[in-house]
């Protein structure tokens, strides 16, 4: 892909996309939210 004449790789695009739309603080909150999920009496950690 080219933007303004510069070649953009998938890794470059993905990095910029994640920084803009999925910042580190949100990612950390989602990890905590996931680890606190429960089904019945079992947590995610119990399943793994």
Automatic annotation (TrEMBL):
This is Cellular nucleic acid-binding protein. It holds the Pfam family Retrotrans_gag. It comes from Trifolium medium. Residues 7-47 form the Retrotransposon gag domain. It comes from the Eukaryota.
């Amino acid at each position: 892909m080219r933007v303004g004449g510069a070649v953009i790789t998938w890794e470059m695009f993905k990095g910029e996309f994640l920084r803009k739309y999925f910042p580190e603080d949100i990612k950390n909150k989602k990890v905590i939210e996931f680890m606190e999920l429960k089904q019945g009496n079992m947590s995610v950690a119990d399943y793994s």
